[in-house]
Amino acid sequence: MSKAITVSYEGNPCYEIVLEQNFEQLIGEIKKIGYTPDQKICIVTDSNLGRLHLAEIEKIFKSYFHTVSSFCFPAGEQSKNLDTVQKLYQDLIINHFDRHDIMIAFGGGVVGDLTGFTAATYLRGIDFIQIPTSLLSQVDSSIGGKTGVDFSQYKNMVGAFYQPKLVYMNLSLLQTLPKEQFVSGMGEILKHGLIKSASYFSWMKEHYTAILALEPDVIEEMVYQSCLIKRDVVERDPKEKGERALLNFGHTIGHAVEKLSDFHLYHGQCVSIGMAAACHISKEAGNITDTECEDILNTFTQFGLPISAEQLKAEDILSISKSDKKMVAGKIKFILLRSIGDAYIEQDLTDDQILDGIHSIIHA
Ligand SMILES: NC(=O)c1ccc[n+]([C@@H]2O[C@H](COP(=O)([O-])OP(=O)(O)OC[C@H]3O[C@@H](n4cnc5c(N)ncnc54)[C@H](O)[C@@H]3O)[C@@H](O)[C@H]2O)c1
Ligand SMILES: O=C(O)C(=O)C[C@@H](O)[C@H](O)[C@H](O)COP(=O)(O)O
Ligand SMILES: [Zn+2]
Protein backbone atom coordinates (compact mmCIF):
# COMPACT_ATOMS: atom_id res chain seq x y z
CA MET A 1 0.00 0.00 0.00
CA SER A 2 1.72 3.15 -1.17
CA LYS A 3 0.74 5.96 -3.47
CA ALA A 4 2.35 9.08 -4.93
CA ILE A 5 0.97 12.16 -6.65
CA THR A 6 3.03 14.80 -8.43
CA VAL A 7 2.07 18.44 -7.97
CA SER A 8 3.08 20.83 -10.72
CA TYR A 9 3.51 24.55 -10.33
CA GLU A 10 3.16 26.82 -13.37
CA GLY A 11 3.34 23.78 -15.62
CA ASN A 12 6.46 22.18 -14.12
CA PRO A 13 6.62 19.24 -11.68
CA CYS A 14 7.24 20.86 -8.28
CA TYR A 15 6.87 18.28 -5.48
CA GLU A 16 5.61 14.80 -4.67
CA ILE A 17 2.84 13.86 -2.25
CA VAL A 18 3.75 10.43 -0.88
CA LEU A 19 1.21 8.30 1.01
CA GLU A 20 2.72 5.55 3.12
CA GLN A 21 1.85 3.48 6.21
CA ASN A 22 5.27 4.07 7.82
CA PHE A 23 8.41 6.20 7.51
CA GLU A 24 10.47 3.62 5.63
CA GLN A 25 10.61 5.59 2.38
CA LEU A 26 11.18 9.01 3.95
CA ILE A 27 14.96 9.22 3.64
CA GLY A 28 14.77 7.71 0.14
CA GLU A 29 12.36 10.48 -0.90
CA ILE A 30 14.66 13.07 0.65
CA LYS A 31 17.65 11.72 -1.24
CA LYS A 32 15.63 11.90 -4.48
CA ILE A 33 15.32 15.68 -3.95
CA GLY A 34 19.11 15.81 -3.79
CA TYR A 35 19.55 16.80 -0.13
CA THR A 36 22.90 15.93 1.41
CA PRO A 37 23.87 14.97 5.03
CA ASP A 38 25.63 18.31 5.66
CA GLN A 39 22.39 20.29 5.40
CA LYS A 40 20.96 21.19 8.81
CA ILE A 41 17.45 20.04 9.71
CA CYS A 42 15.00 21.81 12.03
CA ILE A 43 11.95 19.70 12.90
CA VAL A 44 9.07 21.98 13.90
CA THR A 45 6.29 20.33 15.84
CA ASP A 46 3.72 20.87 18.60
CA SER A 47 3.53 19.58 22.17
CA ASN A 48 1.31 16.59 21.33
CA LEU A 49 3.47 15.34 18.49
CA GLY A 50 6.50 16.14 20.63
CA ARG A 51 5.21 13.74 23.26
CA LEU A 52 3.99 11.02 20.90
CA HIS A 53 6.15 10.81 17.78
CA LEU A 54 9.07 13.27 17.80
CA ALA A 55 11.66 10.78 19.07
CA GLU A 56 10.91 8.41 16.19
CA ILE A 57 11.19 11.06 13.48
CA GLU A 58 14.32 12.60 15.01
CA LYS A 59 15.98 9.19 14.91
CA ILE A 60 15.10 8.78 11.24
CA PHE A 61 16.49 12.21 10.30
CA LYS A 62 19.63 11.62 12.40
CA SER A 63 20.27 8.40 10.44
CA TYR A 64 21.08 10.61 7.41
CA PHE A 65 21.68 14.23 8.43
CA HIS A 66 24.58 15.25 10.73
CA THR A 67 22.76 18.14 12.44
CA VAL A 68 19.13 17.75 13.51
CA SER A 69 17.41 20.10 15.96
CA SER A 70 13.77 20.43 16.93
CA PHE A 71 11.46 23.27 17.88
CA CYS A 72 8.29 22.42 19.79
CA PHE A 73 5.44 24.84 20.62
CA PRO A 74 2.17 24.39 22.57
CA ALA A 75 -0.44 22.57 20.46
CA GLY A 76 -3.48 24.45 19.19
CA GLU A 77 -4.65 27.31 16.99
CA GLN A 78 -3.73 29.78 19.78
CA SER A 79 -0.07 29.20 18.86
CA LYS A 80 -0.53 30.03 15.17
CA ASN A 81 0.69 33.60 15.44
CA LEU A 82 3.68 35.88 14.93
CA ASP A 83 4.93 35.33 18.52
CA THR A 84 5.59 31.68 17.76
CA VAL A 85 7.13 32.62 14.40
CA GLN A 86 9.51 35.01 16.18
CA LYS A 87 10.58 32.31 18.63
CA LEU A 88 11.20 30.01 15.69
CA TYR A 89 13.31 32.67 13.89
CA GLN A 90 15.37 32.98 17.12
CA ASP A 91 15.86 29.23 17.25
CA LEU A 92 17.01 29.13 13.62
CA ILE A 93 19.44 31.99 14.22
CA ILE A 94 20.88 30.40 17.39
CA ASN A 95 21.38 27.15 15.47
CA HIS A 96 23.08 29.02 12.57
CA PHE A 97 20.57 28.00 9.90
CA ASP A 98 21.48 29.32 6.49
CA ARG A 99 19.72 29.33 3.17
CA HIS A 100 20.69 25.82 2.17
CA ASP A 101 19.26 24.25 5.36
CA ILE A 102 15.82 22.66 5.65
CA MET A 103 12.76 22.96 7.88
CA ILE A 104 10.41 20.06 8.54
CA ALA A 105 6.75 20.70 9.43
CA PHE A 106 5.84 17.67 11.52
CA GLY A 107 2.25 17.99 12.72
CA GLY A 108 -1.21 19.18 11.77
CA GLY A 109 -2.29 22.25 9.83
CA VAL A 110 -1.16 24.64 12.55
CA VAL A 111 2.41 23.33 12.40
CA GLY A 112 2.32 23.20 8.59
CA ASP A 113 0.97 26.74 8.07
CA LEU A 114 3.34 28.25 10.64
CA THR A 115 6.45 26.36 9.52
CA GLY A 116 5.74 27.09 5.87
CA PHE A 117 5.39 30.80 6.61
CA THR A 118 8.61 30.85 8.64
CA ALA A 119 10.41 28.99 5.85
CA ALA A 120 9.03 31.48 3.29
CA THR A 121 10.34 34.48 5.22
CA TYR A 122 13.50 33.37 7.04
CA LEU A 123 16.46 34.60 4.97
CA ARG A 124 13.91 35.34 2.22
CA GLY A 125 13.09 31.66 1.91
CA ILE A 126 14.55 28.30 2.85
CA ASP A 127 13.30 24.83 1.86
CA PHE A 128 10.63 23.06 3.86
CA ILE A 129 9.02 19.65 3.87
CA GLN A 130 5.52 18.81 5.03
CA ILE A 131 5.01 15.69 7.15
CA PRO A 132 1.31 16.10 7.91
CA THR A 133 0.03 14.03 10.83
CA SER A 134 -3.65 15.02 11.22
CA LEU A 135 -6.31 13.94 8.74
CA LEU A 136 -7.02 17.58 7.90
CA SER A 137 -3.40 18.38 7.14
CA GLN A 138 -2.98 15.23 5.03
CA VAL A 139 -5.92 16.00 2.74
CA ASP A 140 -5.80 19.77 2.67
CA SER A 141 -3.34 22.08 4.43
CA SER A 142 -0.08 20.37 3.40
CA ILE A 143 -0.94 20.75 -0.32
CA GLY A 144 -0.94 23.91 -2.39
CA GLY A 145 1.48 26.18 -0.60
CA LYS A 146 -0.88 28.37 1.44
CA THR A 147 1.17 29.25 4.51
CA GLY A 148 0.50 31.79 7.21
CA VAL A 149 -0.58 32.71 10.72
CA ASP A 150 -3.52 34.38 12.44
CA PHE A 151 -3.19 38.03 13.36
CA SER A 152 -5.20 39.75 16.06
CA GLN A 153 -7.35 36.58 16.12
CA TYR A 154 -8.23 36.98 12.40
CA LYS A 155 -7.59 33.77 10.50
CA ASN A 156 -4.56 33.54 8.19
CA MET A 157 -4.27 37.32 7.92
CA VAL A 158 -0.49 37.21 7.40
CA GLY A 159 0.93 34.68 4.99
CA ALA A 160 2.59 33.72 1.75
CA PHE A 161 2.18 31.27 -1.06
CA TYR A 162 5.23 29.07 -0.66
CA GLN A 163 5.54 25.51 -1.95
CA PRO A 164 7.01 22.60 0.05
CA LYS A 165 9.70 20.40 -1.50
CA LEU A 166 7.92 17.19 -0.45
CA VAL A 167 4.73 16.11 1.30
CA TYR A 168 5.24 12.78 3.04
CA MET A 169 2.49 11.20 5.08
CA ASN A 170 2.59 8.16 7.31
CA LEU A 171 -1.10 7.29 7.53
CA SER A 172 -0.58 4.98 10.50
CA LEU A 173 -0.06 8.10 12.68
CA LEU A 174 -3.81 8.68 12.42
CA GLN A 175 -4.17 5.93 15.02
CA THR A 176 -3.14 8.39 17.75
CA LEU A 177 -5.18 11.33 16.43
CA PRO A 178 -8.05 12.17 18.83
CA LYS A 179 -11.45 11.20 17.40
CA GLU A 180 -12.82 14.75 17.30
CA GLN A 181 -9.75 15.88 15.33
CA PHE A 182 -10.33 13.07 12.85
CA VAL A 183 -13.92 14.23 12.49
CA SER A 184 -12.71 17.81 11.99
CA GLY A 185 -10.64 16.57 9.03
CA MET A 186 -13.81 15.00 7.60
CA GLY A 187 -15.21 18.55 7.31
CA GLU A 188 -12.64 19.42 4.62
CA ILE A 189 -12.97 16.00 2.97
CA LEU A 190 -16.75 16.25 2.64
CA LYS A 191 -16.13 19.76 1.26
CA HIS A 192 -14.01 18.23 -1.52
CA GLY A 193 -16.91 16.00 -2.56
CA LEU A 194 -19.45 18.81 -2.33
CA ILE A 195 -17.49 21.26 -4.47
CA LYS A 196 -15.97 18.87 -7.02
CA SER A 197 -17.36 15.34 -7.09
CA ALA A 198 -20.87 14.06 -6.37
CA SER A 199 -19.62 10.46 -6.76
CA TYR A 200 -16.92 11.01 -4.11
CA PHE A 201 -19.53 12.49 -1.77
CA SER A 202 -21.73 9.40 -2.29
CA TRP A 203 -18.72 7.11 -1.76
CA MET A 204 -18.11 8.70 1.64
CA LYS A 205 -21.73 8.18 2.63
CA GLU A 206 -21.48 4.52 1.61
CA HIS A 207 -18.22 3.99 3.50
CA TYR A 208 -18.92 5.99 6.63
CA THR A 209 -18.70 3.03 9.00
CA ALA A 210 -15.33 1.93 7.58
CA ILE A 211 -14.06 5.53 7.58
CA LEU A 212 -14.98 6.09 11.23
CA ALA A 213 -13.45 2.71 12.09
CA LEU A 214 -10.22 3.91 10.43
CA GLU A 215 -10.00 0.90 8.10
CA PRO A 216 -6.56 1.39 6.51
CA ASP A 217 -7.52 0.64 2.86
CA VAL A 218 -10.55 2.91 2.99
CA ILE A 219 -8.64 5.71 4.71
CA GLU A 220 -5.84 5.50 2.18
CA GLU A 221 -8.29 5.61 -0.71
CA MET A 222 -10.11 8.60 0.83
CA VAL A 223 -6.92 10.57 1.55
CA TYR A 224 -5.71 9.79 -1.97
CA GLN A 225 -8.96 10.97 -3.62
CA SER A 226 -8.98 14.18 -1.59
CA CYS A 227 -5.32 14.88 -2.40
CA LEU A 228 -6.12 14.43 -6.10
CA ILE A 229 -9.02 16.89 -5.92
CA LYS A 230 -6.95 19.48 -4.07
CA ARG A 231 -3.93 18.93 -6.35
CA ASP A 232 -6.01 19.47 -9.49
CA VAL A 233 -7.44 22.75 -8.16
CA VAL A 234 -4.15 24.24 -6.93
CA GLU A 235 -2.35 23.26 -10.13
CA ARG A 236 -4.91 25.13 -12.22
CA ASP A 237 -5.01 28.16 -9.92
CA PRO A 238 -2.04 28.25 -7.50
CA LYS A 239 -2.59 31.81 -6.25
CA GLU A 240 -6.37 31.86 -5.89
CA LYS A 241 -7.14 34.12 -8.81
CA GLY A 242 -10.29 32.15 -9.59
CA GLU A 243 -11.17 28.47 -9.18
CA ARG A 244 -9.10 27.97 -6.00
CA ALA A 245 -11.59 30.14 -4.12
CA LEU A 246 -13.98 27.17 -4.33
CA LEU A 247 -11.83 25.48 -1.65
CA ASN A 248 -13.16 28.24 0.61
CA PHE A 249 -16.64 26.70 0.57
CA GLY A 250 -17.96 27.06 4.15
CA HIS A 251 -14.99 29.19 5.22
CA THR A 252 -16.38 32.74 5.20
CA ILE A 253 -18.89 31.97 7.92
CA GLY A 254 -16.67 29.13 9.22
CA HIS A 255 -13.76 31.47 9.94
CA ALA A 256 -16.11 33.89 11.74
CA VAL A 257 -17.46 31.04 13.90
CA GLU A 258 -13.88 29.90 14.60
CA LYS A 259 -12.93 33.37 15.83
CA LEU A 260 -16.14 33.87 17.81
CA SER A 261 -15.69 30.50 19.53
CA ASP A 262 -12.25 31.74 20.57
CA PHE A 263 -10.83 28.75 18.68
CA HIS A 264 -12.55 26.27 20.99
CA LEU A 265 -14.25 24.78 17.95
CA TYR A 266 -11.84 23.11 15.51
CA HIS A 267 -11.31 24.38 11.97
CA GLY A 268 -13.11 21.48 10.24
CA GLN A 269 -16.03 21.76 12.66
CA CYS A 270 -16.38 25.47 11.86
CA VAL A 271 -16.14 24.74 8.14
CA SER A 272 -18.97 22.23 8.59
CA ILE A 273 -21.14 24.90 10.26
CA GLY A 274 -20.20 27.38 7.51
CA MET A 275 -21.06 24.82 4.80
CA ALA A 276 -24.43 24.18 6.47
CA ALA A 277 -25.20 27.91 6.16
CA ALA A 278 -23.94 28.01 2.57
CA CYS A 279 -26.11 24.99 1.69
CA HIS A 280 -29.14 26.77 3.11
CA ILE A 281 -28.35 29.85 0.98
CA SER A 282 -27.83 27.58 -2.07
CA LYS A 283 -31.23 26.00 -1.45
CA GLU A 284 -32.97 29.36 -1.05
CA ALA A 285 -31.31 30.53 -4.29
CA GLY A 286 -33.07 27.64 -6.03
CA ASN A 287 -29.90 25.64 -6.73
CA ILE A 288 -30.19 22.55 -4.57
CA THR A 289 -33.42 20.94 -3.41
CA ASP A 290 -34.72 20.62 0.15
CA THR A 291 -33.94 16.91 -0.02
CA GLU A 292 -30.35 17.47 -1.17
CA CYS A 293 -29.78 20.07 1.55
CA GLU A 294 -31.18 17.69 4.17
CA ASP A 295 -29.05 14.86 2.82
CA ILE A 296 -25.88 16.99 3.13
CA LEU A 297 -26.68 18.08 6.68
CA ASN A 298 -27.56 14.51 7.70
CA THR A 299 -24.23 13.32 6.30
CA PHE A 300 -22.34 15.93 8.35
CA THR A 301 -24.22 14.80 11.46
CA GLN A 302 -23.59 11.13 10.67
CA PHE A 303 -19.85 11.84 10.67
CA GLY A 304 -20.15 13.71 13.98
CA LEU A 305 -19.75 17.20 12.53
CA PRO A 306 -21.71 20.15 13.97
CA ILE A 307 -24.21 22.05 11.80
CA SER A 308 -25.21 24.74 14.26
CA ALA A 309 -23.74 27.50 16.39
CA GLU A 310 -26.69 28.34 18.60
CA GLN A 311 -24.67 30.24 21.20
CA LEU A 312 -23.52 32.93 18.70
CA LYS A 313 -25.24 36.12 17.53
CA ALA A 314 -26.15 36.39 13.83
CA GLU A 315 -25.02 40.04 13.59
CA ASP A 316 -21.59 39.16 15.03
CA ILE A 317 -21.12 36.33 12.53
CA LEU A 318 -22.11 38.63 9.65
CA SER A 319 -19.85 41.46 10.71
CA ILE A 320 -16.80 39.21 11.22
CA SER A 321 -17.51 37.40 7.93
CA LYS A 322 -17.27 40.80 6.27
CA SER A 323 -13.83 41.42 7.76
CA ASP A 324 -12.49 38.11 6.37
CA LYS A 325 -9.95 38.50 3.57
CA LYS A 326 -12.32 37.54 0.76
CA MET A 327 -14.03 40.91 0.26
CA VAL A 328 -13.91 42.34 -3.25
CA ALA A 329 -15.08 45.94 -3.74
CA GLY A 330 -17.00 45.77 -0.46
CA LYS A 331 -18.76 42.50 -1.34
CA ILE A 332 -18.22 39.08 0.20
CA LYS A 333 -16.88 36.49 -2.22
CA PHE A 334 -19.19 33.66 -1.25
CA ILE A 335 -19.05 30.05 -2.41
CA LEU A 336 -22.38 28.35 -3.15
CA LEU A 337 -23.44 25.00 -4.58
CA ARG A 338 -25.06 24.79 -7.99
CA SER A 339 -25.58 21.10 -7.22
CA ILE A 340 -23.75 18.47 -5.16
CA GLY A 341 -20.26 18.28 -6.73
CA ASP A 342 -20.51 21.66 -8.46
CA ALA A 343 -19.66 24.91 -6.63
CA TYR A 344 -19.39 28.48 -7.88
CA ILE A 345 -18.37 31.95 -6.70
CA GLU A 346 -21.24 34.32 -5.89
CA GLN A 347 -20.44 37.97 -5.25
CA ASP A 348 -23.92 39.42 -5.34
CA LEU A 349 -25.51 38.04 -2.20
CA THR A 350 -27.37 40.59 -0.12
CA ASP A 351 -26.84 40.88 3.64
CA ASP A 352 -30.38 39.51 4.06
CA GLN A 353 -29.54 36.36 2.10
CA ILE A 354 -26.37 35.82 4.15
CA LEU A 355 -28.23 36.54 7.40
CA ASP A 356 -30.88 34.01 6.38
CA GLY A 357 -28.10 31.40 6.01
CA ILE A 358 -26.65 32.42 9.38
CA HIS A 359 -30.08 32.16 11.04
CA SER A 360 -30.39 28.61 9.69
CA ILE A 361 -27.34 27.55 11.76
CA ILE A 362 -28.33 29.50 14.83
CA HIS A 363 -31.86 28.08 14.95
CA ALA A 364 -30.98 24.62 13.59
N1 LIG B 1 -2.84 25.95 4.33
C1 LIG B 1 -4.00 25.45 3.99
O1 LIG B 1 -4.31 25.28 2.80
C2 LIG B 1 -4.97 25.04 5.05
C3 LIG B 1 -6.05 24.19 4.73
C4 LIG B 1 -6.91 23.81 5.74
C5 LIG B 1 -6.68 24.22 7.05
N2 LIG B 1 -5.62 25.01 7.32
C6 LIG B 1 -5.31 25.38 8.71
O2 LIG B 1 -4.96 24.18 9.40
C7 LIG B 1 -5.26 24.33 10.78
C8 LIG B 1 -6.05 23.13 11.25
O3 LIG B 1 -5.25 21.97 11.08
P1 LIG B 1 -5.45 20.71 12.02
O4 LIG B 1 -6.86 20.36 12.09
O5 LIG B 1 -4.45 19.71 11.63
O6 LIG B 1 -5.11 21.35 13.46
P2 LIG B 1 -3.83 21.19 14.42
O7 LIG B 1 -2.58 21.39 13.70
O8 LIG B 1 -4.13 22.02 15.59
O9 LIG B 1 -3.90 19.65 14.82
C9 LIG B 1 -5.04 19.21 15.52
C10 LIG B 1 -4.65 18.57 16.86
O10 LIG B 1 -4.28 17.23 16.61
C11 LIG B 1 -3.01 16.95 17.18
N3 LIG B 1 -2.39 15.96 16.30
C12 LIG B 1 -2.02 16.11 15.01
N4 LIG B 1 -1.62 14.94 14.52
C13 LIG B 1 -1.71 14.02 15.51
C14 LIG B 1 -1.44 12.65 15.61
N5 LIG B 1 -1.05 11.92 14.56
N6 LIG B 1 -1.63 12.05 16.81
C15 LIG B 1 -2.07 12.75 17.89
N7 LIG B 1 -2.37 14.06 17.85
C16 LIG B 1 -2.19 14.69 16.67
C17 LIG B 1 -2.31 18.28 17.26
O11 LIG B 1 -1.34 18.26 18.25
C18 LIG B 1 -3.48 19.21 17.59
O12 LIG B 1 -3.75 19.17 18.96
C19 LIG B 1 -6.02 25.63 10.92
O13 LIG B 1 -5.14 26.61 11.39
C20 LIG B 1 -6.45 25.94 9.50
O14 LIG B 1 -6.62 27.31 9.29
C21 LIG B 1 -4.77 25.42 6.36
O1 LIG C 1 -6.07 25.78 -0.12
C1 LIG C 1 -6.95 26.64 -0.16
O2 LIG C 1 -6.98 27.50 -1.04
C2 LIG C 1 -8.02 26.67 0.85
O3 LIG C 1 -8.79 27.62 0.88
C3 LIG C 1 -8.13 25.53 1.80
C4 LIG C 1 -8.87 25.87 3.07
O4 LIG C 1 -9.39 24.65 3.57
C5 LIG C 1 -7.98 26.44 4.16
O5 LIG C 1 -8.67 26.54 5.37
C6 LIG C 1 -7.25 27.73 3.85
O6 LIG C 1 -6.26 27.98 4.83
C7 LIG C 1 -8.13 28.94 3.85
O7 LIG C 1 -7.39 29.98 3.37
P1 LIG C 1 -7.84 31.48 3.52
O8 LIG C 1 -6.99 32.16 2.54
O9 LIG C 1 -9.30 31.53 3.23
O10 LIG C 1 -7.58 31.87 4.92
ZN1 LIG D 1 -10.07 24.96 5.61
TrEMBL record:
EC number(s) on file: 4.2.3.4
PANTHER family (UniProt xref): 3-DEHYDROQUINATE SYNTHASE (PTHR43622)
HAMAP family recorded: DHQ_synthase
Cofactor(s) this protein cannot do without: Zn(2+); NAD(+); Co(2+)
Name of the protein this chain belongs to: 3-dehydroquinate synthase
Keyword Zinc appears in the UniProt entry: yes
BP term (GO), one: chorismate biosynthetic process
Gene3D superfamilies xref list: 3.40.50.1970, Dehydroquinate synthase-like - alpha domain (1.20.1090.10)
